[in-house]
Amino acid sequence: MRPRLYAALLLALLSPLATSQNQPAVPPAATPPMGWNSWNWFAEKVTDKDVRQAADLLVSSGMRDAGYVYVNIDDTWEGTRDAKGVLHANEKFPDMKALADYVHSKGLKLGIYSSPGLKTCARFEGSEGHEQQDADLYASWGIDFLKYDLCSLHKEMGVMAPGDKLKQNVIMRDAYMKMHLAIVKAGRPMVYSICQYGHDSSWEWAAEVGGNMWRTTADIDSTFFRIAQIGREQAGLAQYAGTGHWNDPDMLELGNGKLTADENRSHMGLWAMLAAPLAGNNLTQLSPNVLAVLTNREIIAIDQDRLGRQAERIYAKGPIEIWSRPLADGTVALAIFNFGEDESFLRGFSLHLAASGAANGWNARDVWAGKDLGPINDNYKFTLKRHASLIFTLSRGQAHN
Ligand code: GAL
């Protein structure tokens, strides 16, 4: 069954429940969720104090006002279950409800992490067999976002259905659906973020099991090599994303490693073109360059465009690629990347304006430079340094209206 039809049926089935429990008319994640996530910087060391500090920094840096509102605690917050099966946070998180209240008092939202298996990837307690109990617990704390990471279920599927990939896939989907239904029943809207590394073409089924976003890839790291590799792998996935359900090429790495200014722009620009959820970076040492890139309003507007159409690749030759996406106001965003190790003089290169939905003579704006360039043609001349990129927004000129 097609994902949208399935989702519509599911919604119809659940709607009496949804209405009675104040589910919002607009689904969570109407645009790609933006915020912060603890994993890429703090990993297993994250504490209540770090999360409060992240909330404070989102506000003081201006990132909240640029749209970064989710403060997501990743793995390693989990403690043990009591005799009734109720999960308690471990000693690093003394009072989750108080933490949620603090985060909410800053105008932000709180996210949490679990697994459909018995154990999370860092071998903490998963939700298997306790889905409703956990969803109710999250709702009682005031949680707004759940990242649900396959982890130990992967092995368990192999044990439950040895050698039978199809059956394993059904077990996995059922497990994700179970938590989705538990969240709906718990009655508090939460963004449902499916983390399954893109196995079994997650983009084809994750929306069917209630996913608002789903990882399309194994973990990112802070090297430009890995960032470019993941970004380029997203070609062909645009058709699966849209309002309320997004491909997730994993979290941002700006400020986590040693990316150059060009690499920061290319990472952020590509993720914005991909309508990717934006979160993940280290906030404790925000350089002016990283902050400027993260909070560039025009780039964020591309990521958050209400049409919700992820970019598709329209040209690829060697290290040079062009990606484009239509925007709600009738303009087109066009991005040209040089993923190669050398400066490219782009001799004989064409911008491929027609393939992007624009045309010769449309007006171009250089988004990173914040500059209107006037009418542009396919033979526009420029060079791109190693790992650099350009993003244009293109609009029909007056004469063509
Ligand atoms: C991985 C996941 C990471 C992080 C980690 C926590 O499976 O891809 O993003 O959540 O688990 O243990």
What attributes characterize this protein structure?
alpha/beta, 7-stranded parallel sheet, 15 strands, binds beta-D-galactopyranose
Could you walk me through the main structural features you see in this protein, from its secondary elements to its overall organization?
This protein has 401 residues and is an alpha/beta fold. It has 14 helices and 15 strands. It has helices at 3-20, 39-42, 48-60, 63-66, 96-105, 131-141, 153-160, 165-186, 202-205, 224-233, 261-273, 288-294, 297-303, 353-356, and strands at 35-37, 70-72, 78-81, 87-89, 109-114, 145-149, 191-195, 213-215, 246-248, 312-317, 320-326, 332-338, 363-366, 371-375, 389-395. The protein has a seven-stranded parallel sheet with strand order 1-2-5-6-7-8-9. The protein has a six-stranded antiparallel sheet with strand order 10-11-12-15-13-14. The chain has a two-stranded antiparallel ribbon with strand order 3-4. Strand 5, helix 6 and strand 6 form a beta-alpha-beta unit. Helix 6 runs parallel beside helix 8. The radius of gyration is 22 Å and the shape is globular. Residues 1-25 have low confidence and may be disordered. The structure holds beta-D-galactopyranose (GAL). Residues 39, 74-75, 120-122, 149, 195, 219 line the site of beta-D-galactopyranose. Beta-D-galactopyranose (GAL) binds at residues 39, 74-75, 120-122, 149, 195, 219.
